[in-house]
Design brief:
about 280 residues, globular, 2 strands
Length: about 280
């Protein structure tokens, strides 16, 4: 159901498409702020551009869908993903507070991306299995990721914080250091994250395979992105398991970072195919 906002002037009902200019302004402020802070740091121009793409492409596709009055739930989720990517880019900052905000935003981004993959193309889950996988992702983020910001330093290295490598700023939210986070919770959550993403990729691929010709055309781009993201994440977790950095791990991290704009591009391609071949 489309989100409806009651106007205070004349009682007119507005849809998300009517909110395009406001959402665009909010998005641009978020992206511009993040990129300005990044440009002021020691980050390379190429890396700043990379973060701009990661935040800007989901926002651009989301606004385009709102303007066209299509797939509004998907559009709003893309806008949320773009804004979270902009916040996540703050993890490149040398300031402890900004860095910490960026790292937490990365964890908040994951359930949004899973929603986009599973609920595509209509913004609704096609089965109870998809709903369960999304709820599992949200529960994982809410129980095994976000609370640990208060209990331990953030794990390093991380693709969203490539500028600091293994010498990142302190976690500004850390209240007490509990060894159980690194010894038990972190390995457990990474294992569960990999399992969920593999299940998500398999489910989307099965939907595409079992559907008709139009369904395959629409879902194939998203299935490819889901498979790419799952494989990249699994290998990245293994590559950084020894707690060090390497060119291979850095390359995988860059691919992982690009998964958000890849999902946005997959949405754009699939919805175009749906319109062309319908």
């Amino acid at each position: 159901m489309a989100v409806m906002v009651q106007s205070l002037r004349g009682g007119r009902i507005r849809t998300p498409g009517d909110l395009g200019p406001s959402l665009l302004g909010l998005a641009l402020v978020g992206v511009a702020t993040a990129l300005t802070l990044l440009a002021a740091s020691d980050l390379s121009t190429g890396r700043v551009v990379l973060h701009g793409i990661a935040a800007g492409l989901p926002i651009a596709v989301g606004l385009a869908l709102l303007h066209a009055q299509r797939a509004r739930r998907v559009a709003l989720a893309l806008l949320a993903a773009g804004l979270l990517c902009a916040l996540a880019a703050l993890a490149q900052s040398s300031d402890s507070a900004l860095y910490s905000v960026g790292r937490v935003a990365v964890w908040m981004l994951e359930p949004v991306l899973v929603y986009l993959i599973l609920a595509f193309p209509l913004g609704r889950f096609a089965s109870s299995m998809e709903r369960r996988l999304f709820l599992a992702t949200a529960l994982l983020a809410g129980v095994l990721y976000l609370p640990t910001a208060l209990l331990a330093e953030f794990p390093a290295p991380n693709p969203w914080a490539s500028s600091c490598g293994m010498s990142c700023p302190d976690n500004a939210f850390n209240v007490v250091n509990l060894g159980v986070v690194d010894d038990v919770i972190r390995p457990l959550r990474e294992l569960l994250t990999a399992a969920i993403y593999l299940a998500v990729a398999a489910l989307v691929a099965r939907r595409a395979w079992r559907g008709g010709a139009l369904t395959r055309r629409v879902l194939a781009p998203m299935a490819a992105v889901a498979g790419f993201r799952a494989a990249t994440m699994c290998v990245y977790f293994v590559a950084r398991a020894d707690g060090g950095t390497s060119a291979f791990a850095d390359a995988l991290g860059t691919l992982w970072l690009l998964s958000a704009p890849a999902i946005a591009a997959g949405c754009a391609v699939a919805l175009t195919a749906q319109r062309v071949f319908a």
